[in-house]
Every structure is written in structure tokens, then in C-alpha cells.
Amino acid sequence: MLALRCHDTGDLTTGLTVEEIPDPVPGPGQVLVEVQAASVEFVDTLIARGGYQVALPVPFTPGFNAAGVVREVGPGVTRFGVGDRVHGMVPGAFAERALAGEGQLRPTPAGLSADLACLTGATYRTAYDALVSTARLRPGEDLVILGASGAVGSAAITIGKALGARVVACASTAAKLEFCRALGADELVEYTRPDLKQTLKDVCGGSADVVLDLVGGDFSEPALRAVGYGGRFVVVGFAAGSIPRVPLNLVLLKGSTITGYEIGDFERHHPEQARANRDELEAMFVDGRVKPPITGRYPLRDAAAAMRLVAGRDKYGMTILEVAAPGPLA
């Protein structure tokens, strides 16, 4: 089978090649998935560049989120059979076939295409959990998103609008902001401008209710200062490359909260809530309340180019690999 292989972490140009490797064989509790679509995430590029906190021994096949059809099951698997449509956490997803533990997969609902199903594994799941369970976003509230044009940020725009929030999208260029406008953002703020705090206060009518921070760096503190009394500041990532230090007296004076979200820890500590969130997110995809902006579609042979695109600063929306032609929806 064909797979993208990483032979040298640190170089997305020479370290990645698409090549033939043997088909994996499912062991006890494992499912062999015929991959139809896989999402290309920023974390995939970090791992391939050796910049993630967990290092994988080379060579390895990147990718963690995929959708497809069960090709074979290992001993002890009871939830899935050959031919079932599935999606979820699929390590080594950038390949024609990949192994997943039975518990890492979910049945793909009727009406949910493979290219949308693969996005529920990380990007949209992160945005939904962070807004619904961590920020407790309510209809009519002002939601500020730092880094709104990226994958999780653009997911947060569409989910925030579906939940009835007033969305303030913050990005670094006019072109990125126009992309956010097309997704439905109510207000646009170029966060590199000198007085971010006052600008956010002005567009929010005095103060923000919720800030979703995907950027970190020098932008976190001004955004925190724009939060009103009882507001919620949710830390998700540090795309700017540096972890900010903020004066905690701001939290004391505002009666606000700073909370964090990390997808693995959330699922481990709140498994029932995580499952309920995914059920609702998938329903929002199926009925059209949320429409992901898939801005990049690549065949498996161009997976390295897709990785380089996602690693760059000019990335908008979602990027997927179309690995195999999907069959008709169930």
C-alpha cells in the first residue's frame, strides 16, 4: 500500500516521501481501516518537524484523524465489522490503510461524508469542546477568537455562530480577515494593531464575554484586559510561538476565569461529556448548521505538499487528504 513516510524529522521538504509499505495486520482489539479521507492538522506538522512534546521514532507515517471503511478486524473486536463506515483517531492516517484501536473509532452516521467525518476527530472537536464545555458560551455573548483564520479558529467561527454568539474574528492580515467575514464573523480585528485591548472593547460594546486564544505571545494580555467582569478566557494554543505571562491581578479585579483546553485530557477526565459533544457536533454537520470551509484537497501522493501548506502562516480553513474514492453514503 501507499503511505506518507517521515524519515527525517525537522525537514518537511526532504524528510517526507510517499512510498510502498506492507499492509498492516490488525492485532487483538484492532481494526484495519481503508482510509477515504484524512485531515491534515498543524500538530501533524509539529510531530514531523520534531517540535512536539512527544517524539515518534523514525520512520513513521504521520496523521491521526481519518474516515473510511473497515477492511479487516482483529481478534476480540465486537463493535465493528467489515464494510462498516467509521471515523476517529487513526494513527498513521496518511496511508491507504491504517490500524486503529476499536475504542478509537466511531460509526459514521448516515449522511456524513468521509471528508467531513475526518474533521470531527480533532479540529472541530477542539473548537466545540472549548466553546461549549470549557467557555460555556451562551447565545448573544461576544466571542473573541485570536487566530480566527486557521483550522481551529475558523471552526470556532462556524460553531460560535451556530450557537448564537456574536463573533469577533482576530487575524493578522486583511486577506485572512476577509476569509473570516465569509464564514460569518460579525466583527473583524487585525490583532497586530497597536491598541488591541481598546479595539476589542470598542467592537464588543465595552467588554468581551469570552476569548478563545489560539495564538498566545504578545496578544494574550491585551485580549484578557478586554474581558469584562465574569468573562472567560480559554487557552487552547500558542501559534505565535511563545507562552505569555499575564498579571493575575487582572483576574482578581474582573472576577474572570482563565481556563485551558487540551483534547486528550478533556476526553480522559470527561468521557461522557466528550461523547455527547461529538454526537451533537456530528448532528450539526449532518443537518448543515455547521459547514466546514475545506480550502485544500490533496491526493495522497501530494501529502507532503499538504503538510507544508498547513505548516505555513498563510493557511486558511481545513486541509484534507482524499485517499480513496468514497462509496455511497449509508
From TrEMBL:
Pfam family, any one: ADH_N
Source organism superkingdom: Bacteria
Residue span, Enoyl reductase (ER) domain: 11-321
InterPro entries with a match to the protein in the record: ADH-like_C (IPR013149), ADH-like_N (IPR013154), ER (IPR020843), GroES-like_sf (IPR011032), NAD(P)-bd_dom_sf (IPR036291), Zn-ADH-like_protein (IPR051397)
Listed PANTHER family: QUINONE OXIDOREDUCTASE-LIKE PROTEIN 2, SHORT-CHAIN DEHYDROGENASE/REDUCTASE
The protein, known as: NADPH:quinone oxidoreductase family protein
